[in-house]
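Notebook entry, structure prediction.
Reason for the run: the old model in the group folder had no record of what sequence produced it. Starting over properly, with the input documented here first.
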Amino acid sequence: MRTTIDIPDEIYRAVRVRAASEGTTMREIVLDGVAMRLGMEGAVRKQDGRPRFPVIRSKKPGSLKLGEEGVYEYIPFP
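New structure, fully documented this time:
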């Protein structure tokens, strides 16, 4: 289904930045947010059916060592 919504400029820019930094689309971020609000987390997946995983950017790739607790510093969990 296709619909149109008005998004304030500040939120629109923030969503665009987040999508670019995560290597995803604005559509996926909006759908994830709606699914979370409705209590349907996990119901939305990429169109190819694969789950999405967070990307941790590093200035020195391969140098980030994470233990079980260290991941919480980089990835927000509910």
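Summary: Residues 9-22 form the longest helix (14 residues).
The old model has been moved to the deprecated folder.
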